[in-house]
Amino acid sequence: MEFTRVCSLSEVPQGEALKVESGDTAVAIFNVEGELFATQDRCTHGEWSLAEGGYLDGDVVECSLHMGKFCVRTGKVKSPPPCVPLKIFPIRIEGNDVFVDFNAGHLAP
Fold it and tell me: Which residue numbers delimit the Rieske domain (predicted)?
């Protein structure tokens, strides 16, 4: 695994999201009650940023374009119109630094 530092913990307040990028890969970092999760940033139904245009409610993000919902823990669709889950990315915290492995995004089993 190849982790890349993407931000500090303070840049992702509880209940919020942050978009980070490496090359052509955009990832959304979500803070759910102090626990961080990383998913692809783009909704699988429409080309829309979940970090910049979504609403986080617990561990579910709602895309503001068509109101589809995804679990940020698993990437699974919680409410249509999306039918394809989000890729999830390995995330690691070291001290105050947040790292993501951009090459290891995958769909939940």
Answer: 4-100
Cβ within 8 Å of residue 95, ≥6 positions away: none
User: pLDDT value at position 108?
Assistant: 79
Of 109, 78, 101, 85, the residue nearest 27 (C-alpha): 101
pTM exceeds 0.70, yes or no: yes
Within a domain: 19: yes
Report how many domains make up the chain: 1
Q: What parts of the chain have a pLDDT lower than 50?
A: none
CA distance 36 to 57: 14
- Amino acid identity of residue 103, one-letter, is N
User: Looking at the domain assignment, is residue 109 inside a domain?
Assistant: no
